[in-house]
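A further point concerns the way the authors explain their paired sequence and structure data. Each protein is reduced to its one-letter sequence and a matching series of backbone shape codes. An entry of this sort, consisting of the sequence and the corresponding backbone structure tokens, reads as follows:
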Amino acid sequence: MHDLPGWFYCDLYSLFIMIFVLVNVYKNIEERDRQQRAFMGMLKTTILLLALDTVTKLDGRPAPVNYFVTAADCLSIAIGPLVMVFWMRYLGCALFPGGEEKADKWVATAFFLFAVNAVISVFSVPFGWVFYFDEKYVYHRGPGFLVSALFMLSMILLSEAFVFVNRSRIDRRHIFSMNFFLVPPILCGAVQTLLYGSSLILSGFAFSELIVFVHIQNGSMNVDYLTGAYNRRQLDRQIREKIRLSTQAHTFAAILIDLDNFKSINDTMGHNVGDCALEDTVAILRESIRTNDLLARYGGDEFCIVLDTATEAELTTIIVRIEEKLANFNRDGDRPYKLSFSMGYQVYDACSGMSAEQFQKVIDEHMYEHKRQHHGAAPVCGPKLSK
């Protein structure tokens, strides 16, 4: 009778948690959401690896069990880095929403490292280079074990480099998951490497994926589904908090943006094109602001930006940048419409005592004044619609 090691139950517990997370993600996944699909790939790979790892804990048993253990060990080492490939894909979707191809070279590099590791792991089995079993069928690390660990470390460093290079694109909602995700696996991997016989790294990944899942669930409550911008609830909460913390030396500003003639776009070209116009608006605004600024859908075709700026000069710089990005879109874009914005904006005066509702009303009035003065007859149709 062979006693099962404690690590077996650790893997089993992590496996059940990952299955629970997978079921919940699967119920809510949208087919077009590539980021969710990348996360699903991570979950499925981790579940497979945990299942294989539970089998590897059955070493020390004769044939035919030892054959299954050998196969499980080989597959586990070969496909282990696949988790990092999906993580790189997840990062690409988060940093380049709608344009993940900009991250394809990084993902391809991660996949190449994974493929090389898989080939080495499979072909080294007969030679016992990565691992082998003694005469009692007990598992032992081979002399090339650290090479496989280095492949995983290389992929971890690659993902860190990718985040660093694109740090200016990190949205505030992704900062926590991007910075925290690799901490548990790295710590658990270090312990597993130093403490022979331990099995922790997969549980580390499982813990990280659980945290990302909770983070995604919490974040989805505050995000507008269509555009990916924050929703009105999060906007109101942010403005109230900014007002509470405002002083004469440290305050904030807000910009209310209305998409001119949006109803005409919907009525003339259809609601699908109207949805594209909203998504394009968010893309333009995101390119114009900083990562620590908040962009939210105020309602319908209106959006609001909350900025950490206390001067009119800084606010004007953002307004000019939005206008430049909008002009570039209308000049270079291939959409069947031209976009036009009306904007109301103001720096919050900490001495005014205005509530969040009063401040929002002020910028709303500024926005409608701008619409009356400058966009009373703004065109909505681009060259493609002219007859």
User: Anything to note?
Assistant: Confidence is low (pLDDT under 50) at residues 377-387.
